[in-house]
Amino acid sequence: MLFNSLHFAVFFPVVFVLYWFVFQKNLRYQNLLLLVSSYFFYGCWDWRFLFLLIFSTVLDYYTGIRMAEAPTQRNKKFWFWLSVCVNLGFLGVFKYYNFFAESFAQALANFGLTVHPYTLQIILPVGISFYTFHGLSYVIDIYKDRIKAEKDFVDYAVFVSFFPLLVAGPIERATHLLPQIKQRRIFSFPAATDGMKQILWGLFKKVVIADNCAHFADIIFENPSDHSGSTLALGAVFFAFQIYGDFSGYSDIALGTARLLGIDLLRNFAYPYFSRDIAEFWRRWHISLSSWFKDYLYIPLGGSKGGHWMRIRNTFIIFVVSGFWHGANWTFIIWGALNALFIMPSIITSRNRNNLEIVAKGKLLPGVKDLLSMGFTFVLACIAWVFFRAENVTIAIEYLSGMVSRSLWTKPVFKDDSLAPAILLLVACFVVVEWFGREQKYAIANLLRKNVWCRWAFYYLLVVIIFLYAGKNQQFIYFQF
């Protein structure tokens, strides 16, 4: 079930009415409703994988209790590793088995040995990487004595499968979400209207910006050799806004939907394309995943305590693992490694904690230095995005080679040329709105708050644009992860 579909437009109002008007005074029934709704929401993709989600939930719930009741540290460690190995085992089989099998066969072929590996003809369960990380963070926190094991299965199951975040995040922590699930929720009109505004902005990002940018990005990336350098450069920009509009749009809709249900989710994006270096970019892009890797991989590896070499090593590890988390393809691994290389200067010079404040805070426009820094960072991000989008490494290299050719300075030309200026204008307007709203949690949170007529005119304008420029009803990019 897609957020930008008629099915969800029917599904969510029904849940909302039952949640607030039928079960408001009974927290237990509210949570049961959330659990049933979440399983129905997930089962609409493929009901067969619903059993995998339930099994993963039962496993982590049970092992969490067994760890809490373990008589010895050895027994506690057994249950911990059982949960970790089974969870990562399922993720490995469904997501990475074919990659390793084919890579092994290719490596042997380089030595003259021909092997025909057995590959699995299976579909990747939607959202498996996200709910697996939910469960892993829970069992790790119990093992480290950061939290107590949850005894109520319904409450824990809602934490894992809460439908707004189930298939594409944000990746929640038990310390943040479980207490909200266990306490009574009271309807707040200001929170509800705020949630509606965030949903509207998320739909605009997805339906207008992402889907229309995807149209041109797909044309250009499918046959990079047929296009000039300028067209390829513009294709990289289109994809940069496609993936940002798509993923941050999903996050906005998820956060807004949860807020309508009286639940606050972790913020996942903070205007990453206004970053002044790659370190700042990764503090603002997919924040829940970056913080997850920091807390559960980077710090356990030693973090920054072991000097420059350990910081360099650990940084490369988390970025390569992050790339591999996104997909079983060498393009994702190279994408992660490129970001590690781009961040190295700030790591080596210990300047990775610079630029903690919002760019040009309290100012109308950025200074020249900030503008150049943002432009350079955006170019680096676009270069890395080419590997993220390309089908394989060969195509990515071909794409970048064509992009830096002499034809970079020619006029870009591609199909549907008449529609491109309108989309570029919409992207430009989108950037302007985000710039003026960059100090808020989302761009239109307090837009035109002093003029109610202009504010509502802007909301209606967004609705009209969404209907006029609605692209194809595409799935969200991160459903494949």
Shape assignment: globular
Give helix and strand order, one letter per element, not per position: HHHHHHHHHHHHHHHHH
Give the class from helix and strand content and strand pairing.
mainly alpha
Radius of gyration: 23 Å
Low-pLDDT parts are none
Main sheet, how many strands, which sense, barrel? none
Q: How many helix segments?
A: 17
What's the rounded overall pLDDT mean? 89
Tally the beta strands. Answer: 0
Q: Give the termini separation.
A: 16 Å
Strand content: under 5%
Summary?
The chain has 481 residues and is mainly α. Helices cover 65% and strands 0% of the residues.
Name a few traits of the molecule.
single chain; 481 residues; mainly alpha; 17 helices; globular
Provide an overview of this structure.
The mean pLDDT is 89. It is built from 17 helices and no strands. The longest helix has 37 residues, at 73-109. The two termini are 16 Å apart. It has helices at 6-22, 27-43, 50-68, 73-109, 128-143, 153-161, 174-182, 189-222, 229-260, 278-284, 287-298, 308-326, 330-348, 368-389, 393-403, 420-436, 452-468. With 481 residues, it is mainly alpha-helical.
